[in-house]
């Protein structure tokens, strides 16, 4: 599932990865813009996804990502893997990993590499 | 049904639906064997209403379903939405985007929305739709709305599995209207001309109405209703909801539940067998197809017999 939490309004990147994952054989749910962490977690549970990809270009990742992970936990879905993509400064990445993020993707990465990494993580 | 509107055990339901949707034929049959008690009791108490929403892509089905669900939730009922989108025949992947349009209603505790890829099904549904509907009934939903992969026609499969079929069209739906005129289009129970603020809406609605009026009306058949809807139009939605209720009430009076059950079982059986044949063919050694056809047929029959768990 690809989601864009918070107020970020640029969704081209999210759509590109959603389509790339579909072309790699995945079933992808795109939840659209401006969703709250609770909403994202609820959708992830109802759709029984294997992973959630959070796309953030707004700089709000330090709050929104851990919040989303916490909501997933609250809904008995700690097993759903979380990936993060967007503008994530190197200094912030370890904290995200500590919070439980599986992998972090940034704009310089090649699409094919991202897809491959996701496939690897999901086994 | 009188119960709390809040849907319990969402995670468990969600996982169950995944298992069912992904089940190969052998697993599906096994699951059915395990659930005969549940299915039997559904038949006895069977009050989960099934509403099918079909129509071409772009006609606004998802948004309409969201509005309709929002309206009907005010009655205190539990509503399930199963939104099916096509799987790519080449990559097997899918982009399930229907639920974006349902956000307004998605957070209500009385609604459960699930997106489903069609996988190998070619009839507008998903592989194990019949089983999914049973699972929703077992979870005590009052209503299930099934959004199909629309091909512009009220498909035979959805007509069999649901109680009321709603066909959503846009103004100027030339191809759907042509199909109706030629008698190809299976009759839906309710026709919706959506986006009725667009030019040509009145005309489309009149055309549909006149085609329906021309149809020889057999004694005792349902006379389809035509409803116009558009954005921000609570009256249109209320009219659609009321039309659905009218058809449901009419069916309850006029159609023998045993007949419906038999039709559904027939569809279910056929779909399982067709899928199993596809599974076998896809997994077969190429050399199999060098033998004379009667021999291949025998091999196929043997393979089918081995399906049973």
Task: List the defining traits of the structure above.
heterodimer, A: 123 residues, alpha/beta, 5 strands, globular, B: 309 residues, 12 helices
Describe this structure in words.
The complex is a heterodimer of chains A (123) and B (309). Chain A is built from five helices and five strands; from the N terminus they run βαβαβαβαβα. Chain A has 123 residues and is of the alpha/beta class. The longest helix of chain A has 14 residues, at 61-74. With 309 residues, chain B is α/β, with parallel strands linked by helices. Helix content of chain B is 48%, strand content 14%. Chain B has helices at 10-22, 25-34, 36-45, 61-73, 103-106, 129-138, 156-161, 174-181, 201-214, 234-254, 257-283, 293-305, and strands at 49-54, 79-85, 94-96, 111-117, 143-147, 164-169, 190-193, 225-228. In chain B, strand 6 (164-169), helix 8 and strand 7 (190-193) form a beta-alpha-beta unit. The mean pLDDT of chain B is 88. Classes of the chains: A alpha/beta (123), B alpha/beta (309). The A-B interface holds A 18-19, 21-32, 35, 39, 42-43, 45-48, 75-77 and B 10-11, 14-15, 17-18, 87-88, 91-97, 99-100, 103, 106-107, 112-115, 117.
Q: Can you give me a brief rundown of this structure?
A:
Chain A contains five helices and five strands; from the N terminus they run E-H-E-H-E-H-E-H-E-H.
How much of the sequence lies in strands of chain A comes to 15-25%
Q: Hey, which two chains have the biggest interface?
A: A-B, 25 and 25 residues
In terms of quaternary structure, what is this? Answer: heterodimer
**Spatial gap, N to C terminus of chain B:** 36 Å
Q: Walk across the major sheet of chain B and give the strand order.
A: 4-2-5-1-6-7-8
| Major sheet size, sense and barrel closure of chain A | 4 strands, parallel
Structural class of chain B: alpha/beta
Distance between the termini of chain A: 16 Å
Beta-strand portion of chain B reads: 5-15%
Q: What kind of sheet is the major sheet of chain B? A: 7 strands, parallel
């Amino acid at each position: 599932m690809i989601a864009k939490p918070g107020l970020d309004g640029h969704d081209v990147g999210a759509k590109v990865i959603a389509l790339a994952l579909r072309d790699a054989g995945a079933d992808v749910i795109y939840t659209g813009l401006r969703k709250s962490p609770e909403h994202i977690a609820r959708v992830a549970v109802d759709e029984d996804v294997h992973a959630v990809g959070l796309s953030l270009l707004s700089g709000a990742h330090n709050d929104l990502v851990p919040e989303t992970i916490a909501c997933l936990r609250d809904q008995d879905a700690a097993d759903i893997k979380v990936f993060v993509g967007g503008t994530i400064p190197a200094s912030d990445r370890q904290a995200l990993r500590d919070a439980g993020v599986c992998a972090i993707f940034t704009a310089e990465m090649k699409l094919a590499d991202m897809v491959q990494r996701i496939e690897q993580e999901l086994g | 049904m009188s119960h709390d509107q809040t849907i319990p055990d969402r995670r468990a339901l969600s996982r169950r639906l995944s298992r069912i949707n992904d089940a190969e034929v052998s697993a599906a049959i096994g699951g059915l064997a395990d659930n005969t008690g549940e299915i039997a009791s559904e038949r006895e108490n069977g009050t989960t209403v099934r509403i099918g929403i079909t129509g071409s892509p772009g006609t606004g089905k998802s948004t309409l379903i969201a509005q309709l669900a929002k309206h009907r939730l005010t009655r205190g009922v539990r509503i399930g939405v199963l939104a099916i989108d096509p799987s790519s025949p080449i990559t097997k992947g899918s982009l399930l985007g229907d639920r974006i349009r349902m956000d307004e209603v998605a957070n209500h505790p009385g609604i459960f929305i699930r997106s489903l890829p069609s996988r190998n099904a070619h009839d507008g549904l998903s592989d194990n739709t019949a089983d999914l509907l049973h699972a929703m009934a077992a979870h005590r939903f009052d209503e299930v709305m099934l959004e199909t992969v629309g091909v512009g026609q009220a498909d035979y499969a959805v007509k069999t599995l649901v109680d009321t079929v709603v066909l959503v069209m846009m103004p100027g739906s030339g191809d759907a209207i042509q199909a109706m005129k030629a008698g190809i289009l299976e009759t839906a129970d309710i026709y919706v001309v959506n986006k009725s603020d667009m030019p040509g809406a009145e005309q489309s609605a009149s055309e549909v109405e006149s085609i329906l009026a021309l149809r020889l009306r057999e004694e005792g058949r349902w006379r389809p209703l035509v409803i116009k809807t558009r954005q921000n139009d609570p009256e249109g939605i209320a009219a659609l909801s009321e039309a659905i209720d009218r058809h449901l009430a009419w069916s309850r009076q006029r159609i023998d539940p045993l007949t419906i059950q038999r039709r559904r079982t027939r569809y279910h059986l056929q779909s399982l067998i067709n899928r199993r044949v596809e599974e076998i063919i896809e997994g077969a050694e190429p050399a199999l197809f060098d033998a004379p056809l009667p021999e291949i047929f025998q091999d196929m029959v043997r393979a089918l017999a081995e399906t049973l768990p």
